[in-house]
Predict the structure.
Amino acid sequence: MSKNIHPDHLFSLNNRVDAKDGKLVLANMIWVIFALFIGGSAGMLQTFIRAGMFELPFGIGYYQLLTLHGVILALVLTFFFIMGFQIASLSRSAGAFNDKERLLGWIGFWMMSAGTLVAAAMIATNEASVLYTFYAPLQAHAFYYIALAVIIIGTWFSVAGQLMRYFRWRKEYKGHKTPLLSFMASVNNVMWLVCTIGVSMSVIFQYIPWSLGIVETINVSLSRTLFWMFGHALVYFWLLPAYMSWYVVVPKVLGTKGFSDNLARMSFVLFLFFSIPVGIHHQLTEPGIDAFWKGLQVVLTFAVIVPSLMTAFSLFAVFETHGRKLGATGILDWFKKLPWKDARFVLPFLGMLFFIPGGIGGIINASGQMNQLVHNTIWVVGHFHITVGAPVILTYFGVMMFLLPHITGRKITKQLNNMGLYLGYTWTFGMGLMSAAMHFAGLRGAPRRSTFSEYGGADIAQEWITYQILQAVGGTFLFVAIVIAVILFIQLMTGPKTTEAEEFPVASMMDQSVPTTKWVENWRVLIIITVFLLLIAYTMPITQMFTENIPGAKGFKLW
Ligand code: HAS
């Protein structure tokens, strides 16, 4: 392909998601809506149980419901959304998938679907009440672990198809910088491939033989360490699609340009480097890991905060320059110029607001001594509801607003846009109330992963009850928001068709025609640095887990 193509031409090669790719995207998104309804309903019930206001019928256990809630929202909803959105982003920005790439996407989709159904059956029959972290020595049925492995391998197939599409573009337009959205999706995919290796090894070589009775005991420290090597990167795997939307979609919705293509690429590269070698910050209170390695991973955790700060800076720059162009003059009145009536903007913006306390909470968690105070309290549950449960999910909603009608050939009507706004405000109120109550209760020592108890009439447990009631009120608002969301998403896909479908907004950047920094797209260098940091952070702690004669644990089924 010619080297003389003007970057602006390359930027606007594809205006829409290809129709065949669209079907694959839609299949993934239907799972998202289903998972939202089931997982959200389970969540509301939990808040009532924890407040002592409701008891589950038919012998259903609290931990059974909590496992369902965590797995279906944190794993199923997110995985299907990410695959769907990334396929759509690649198809929109790099062009249609070929048959082979699309087939890989479909194989991935069916494997993820099959794995989800088996895992759900295991949870429904109370064979797998081990929560989404499936910590050993709690032992689920072998089918549950097999199902989890199938889901992860399913994502690999889908990711392989997406990466093939990206690298085909690079070959076709050799020497040109790749479309930003396609680059971002590829970084997330490569990060995913690297971080899931450890947890897959653990599931295949530790959990499955142990749950089948082939080996009697499991090395708990090793299994948890391999889980968190994946588990913290998982949170950025959720977050980066939201950042794709913040960097690329939101500026276009405002009718302006994104701040910087180069800065956005750099922040994604930093996520690739620093998302994985930080998992031990979830294990700061655990024995069996040397303090030095905990300290090192805390330092690396502070490095992974930098790309989020770069993102915040970039967003402020976009909002302010946009407002000034529209005539804002004072320090903050650009704020008034933002499109407050457009749900495609308001949903992700509310998410950004949540991420300010969400990010501060993360920094508190990561600070060694502070972690002693909050670890295993419901503060942590509050933290993840204002990170994955708000910035991430509200942005996913914002994406669904335009993506569903874009693919199905419809428009967002005024009425649907208003529903989107109600969804955003109801979700914000419910999540704000519930997670603030969780943070405050956590600071007063209320534990996480526990059902209602008066703890033998202990005074301190009395203090938690008001917060638990507030959580139930917040949970009720969230349930109302979920009902709005489900109705809205169905209507966005089934309303009257139009000749001109809703656009998939993709902004150009202020530095669109500036060439990208060369090494940022040198995948060999990127992967070497990623693996190097991973080896530095994990080689010694994991070696010690093999050499220090840690006794294995038999399986427990405490439910
Ligand atoms: Fe976290 C625990 C540390 C981010 C999710 N985290 C969890 C768990 C989950 C989770 C699920 O170090 C619990 C896991 C479990 O079950 O045990 N977290 C961090 C740090 C960050 C962080 C340092 N977490 C996230 C994100 C998540 C997530 C993102 C999901 C998507 N987290 C921890 C630690 C623990 C932990 C410990 C273990 C706790 C324990 O002991 O168990 C950082 O990445 C945060 C950086 C973020 C920022 C914010 C940038 C702000 C932006 C918005 C700008 C707003 C604008 C609007 C522009 C620095 C980008 C402005 C408009 C106006 C006009 C005002």
Observations:
- The CA atoms of residues 343 and 421 lie 5 Å apart.
- The chain has 16 helices and no strands.
